[in-house]
Amino acid sequence: MAKILIVDDEQGMRQLLSLVFGRANHLVRAAESGRRALEMLRAEPADLIISDVKMPDLDGIEMLRAVREFLPDVAVIMMTAFATVEAAREAFKLGADDFIQKPFDIDELKLIVEKALERLHLLQENRAFKRAQRERGRLDQIIGRSPRMQAVYQMIETVAGVQSTVLITGESGTGKEMVARAVHNLSPRVDKPFMPINCGAFTETLLESELFGYVRGAFTGATANRKGLFEAADKGTIFLDEVGEMSPTMQVKLLRVLQERKVRPVGAHEELAIDTRVIAATNRDLQAMVKQGTFREDLFYRISVIPIELPPLREKTEDIADLIEHFLQKFVAQTGKTVNISEKSVELLEHYSWPGNVRELEHTIERAVALERSGTIQPESLPQQVTHYSPARIASAFDLPDEGINLTAHLEQLEKTYILEALRRTNGNQTRAAEVLHLSVRSLRHLLDKHGIRNLTAQLRSDAVGRGAAE
Q1: Which residues touch 457 (CB under 8 Å, ≥6 apart)?
Q2: Which of 88, 105, 127 is at the close of a domain?
Q3: Is the peptide bond prior to 103 cis by the omega test (within 30 degrees of 0)?
Q4: pLDDT digits (tens, 9 = 90+) for 25-44
Q5: Which helix (H) or strand (E) holds 27?
Q6: Is the pTM of this model over 0.85?
Q7: Phi, psi of 429 (to 5 degrees)
Q8: Domain with 273 in it: what CATH number?
């Protein structure tokens, strides 16, 4: 059963064809003119159009030209009592499936319609198959059958077709950029650029240049105009990773871009209109930062129109076995080795807490495959923190007083202690201390200010210089 629209200024022809194809169980509508046909098609598309060429207000060729702008796949059969080579050529050029001359044999027209609908059905099936193949390919790097991951898959597919800003949250190593790429790859923007940037990896000045670009002469070394990532990603997607690391000044500038949909390159006097979808990500608690006054509330609501939260690996342990198999196949293919993994090793991996999440698991399997000589990954091939992990033993190492503790204050003090120890070991070098703590330099500086100890870094550096001179 197909939706068929008959277009002819002769009432008798409309009635005849409506009767013939209505009896064939098709849903048939009729229009007396080309203009009326366009109105009906915009309100409710058809699968096939049977149209006369010669009509008083808008002929069939002009109607077909207009239809192709919003219904590129609709099947079309043109009919006329005044056939010309030019008219037929133009009809086929616009994608008509067939061209028949009046008067015609009804059985011949029925056969033409049947073949046109078969071609349309094959085209739709082929496109649906290719779309399903692409979608499977675009999600095949995101592994997991747990309910939490099924909810993530559903959200990815839901938000891919809209243009709203997405905020992906989750701990480091949970795959935020992978999810951002999946959203882009399933969207209508898939053929346009996907431009990622880690906002915590740049100073404020460099980040502004990277995002918005600059013009020649804007600063020393700017010898030519350069596009920023927002402009380079026009019609595509920009992925702002670690958006919580942005300085207050950059937060204001990003907010303006999201509001105005325009960017001003550094040193330029005019703004450039952009059509770029924004996907942001962070492992920070932006709502807490808003309360602390370190992240703008209006920007938070701008970037978190659609939130996607990625669960840590410890909360979806049922996915670990699938992830192990995925990474094992990946690294076996890369190394050309024949390696499998023992059940005991899988069991140990499933019981580990994975503070580094999926990224840590991936690196663990990569290391095991690279170092394995026996062909089977045994427990002794795994890192000690995995093989010696015991939640009960870790918990017993802490003394919980009978009267209890202020957990928030205790964790704050613990955080400060680790920061001070990292600074002591690195002689006050903030960059090296950030590496030790697996933080960005901007995140470390934020914590130094939070605990009021930034001035200690200069003292530690001075002490280190003094010790070196004494030696």
Answers
A1: 423, 428, 430, 448
A2: 127
A3: yes
A4: 999 999 999 999 999 999 99
A5: strand 27-31
A6: no
A7: -80, 110
A8: 3.40.50.300
